[in-house]
Amino acid sequence: MALQFIVNVFVEPPAPAGVNCGKPSGWIEDYQALPESQKNLIKSIKRVRVLFGLATFDNAVDGQGLDIDPQEGVPFIYEVDNREAFKTMGTPIAQMAKQSRLLPQHLIKLGTDERQIASGNKYYVPSVELLPNLVEITPEDQTIFKSFTDWIENYNTWVSTNHQESIDAKKQQDNDALVNEFVEIDEIGNAV
Length: 192
Prior knowledge:
Layout: E1 5-11, H1 36-44, E2 49-57, E3 71-80, H2 83-98, E4 108-116, E5 122-130, H3 139-181
């Protein structure tokens, strides 16, 4: 079953400067040459693209699958973590950036493409189309945009604070372990 709807993406949260989800920046020339601990760290990091916006559902259905009136201006948060979907959802964002446009200035038509794995199970990935018409940003849009941006800044602050606290706690543990290794020596050179 394919799904199709229109979204107006207001913001994709930027990573703070110098942060790449803990992964090394850029292409790794010789991944196999990395220490096993570095490979494990890279594999353990879950990269997520988060999109905030408003959706319009022309052919909407309710929880029981019954047709309902079209739904407009439905707020959404879309967390994209599938590798193929991550790349797909980045395409219209890159197109807008090349045109020096803000995300709220365009609508994106979203659909789904079915995929099948060897077992016969099916899953769906997004299909996207950047619609060409520019959307005028209204004062109401600016208020929504600010609300999304404020939420993102608060969340990023929370993540950064917790990350720093974790680093500080690890440093303190390492320092405590080092201090415990010191041996006291009395005035004549004997261990106390």
